[in-house]
């Protein structure tokens, strides 16, 4: 027997007794089968289809298949656009995939843009630059460096991950893999200091690395677990000195002969969540002796490129947009709290995790597809509604992180790229949720179009009233 359709789901629904809950299995969309597949009709559609297939992990994509229905979202849209930008030498924004979610409509949009495109309106080309002089910091790095100079080292900016390794472990191969990653990424050989009165990056040619090993095999299980937790806590609470490279620590803890914990900690000034994923992906490949493709650029090249872009008219256009978008925006969301806000911002807090059921998740995805939104946009609208219910405020701004890796060359780099988009939602005149979702969609798409402006430059341009216990604009 050959199945009529395959459906990919994250987890099988089960009954309380552990058996498969067949009633909650998603219904296959047989109407979207192979019979509706329409192949690309020209080289441009074929190019777009190949890029979609690469990003979405699909063997083939029809020209009338919907990007969102195929599993696309804002993050994947950024990967598609970065590839299209390089393949077509054309400046595009993420919003184009939400406005034209099929290959056929997207190809038409691209053709229109090609006819209207003027190279003078584009950002400079991202390419390697000379290392004969000290490299400038990126703008987000500069903010971290200034905070470090004013407040001193702070472990709140550590990014720590603990990875459990089960099975026979080749310590030399693991150490060599980490050493290779350090040599591969300049950020992992970078320290920060001052040259001629300006903060700069100092990039070491090489840095030796030895993998420290802490052996807990001789401890009883209870004592071993307690010591493991102590070691993990000590690791993520130990601050870095930004003047000393590497701003990376890797430590191996042996629990048993075939069970280890690998602790990896990086300072946020050289890393972000995407970078951590890159580190572990490359660690796995190098440990298995699988070669990696050469990196076309390094983070210092990006920092130089970003600063060159600030001299471009594109940035002035983006500043004008954000000034208009955030004019007279509230400085705070007045949530009712049990205790007054502290006088100085702290990093004490907590994370509440919860899981949405499969049925609700499927309904949210269907709503998103029908509305032409990503799941993020739908959840953002729900979160805005939640904040409105608790505060009564009809004007709400939320700071939302965005990967900001809008060039394909940046996708494989370890470094700090994340930018913050300030998304403003208005709830005057009691809008319906459908109207609210439409507004959130447009605000998000407009934000994606204007994401090149670094958050720190936005704050500098708007000059909001600063308070020690609040983050500006978010």
Q: What this model shows, in words?
A:
With 474 residues, the chain is an alpha+beta fold. The chain folds into 3 domains: 22-121, Non-ribosomal Peptide Synthetase Peptidyl Carrier Protein, Chain A (Orthogonal Bundle), CATH 1.10.1200.10; 135-297, Chloramphenicol Acetyltransferase (2-Layer Sandwich); 310-345 and 355-462, Chloramphenicol Acetyltransferase. It has 14 helices and 9 strands. The chain has helices at residues 43-56, 74-88, 95-99, 103-116, 139-151, 171-184, 221-236, 273-287, 299-309, 313-325, 358-371, 375-391, 433-449, 455-462, and strands spanning 135-136, 158-166, 190-195, 198-203, 213-215, 248-256, 259-267, 395-402, 419-426. Strands 2-7-6-5 form a 4-stranded mixed β-sheet, covered by helices on one side. A 3-stranded antiparallel β-sheet has the order 1-4-3. Helix 11 (358-371) packs across helix 12 and helix 12 (375-391) packs across helix 13 (433-449). The protein is globular, with a radius of gyration of 25 Å. The termini are far apart.
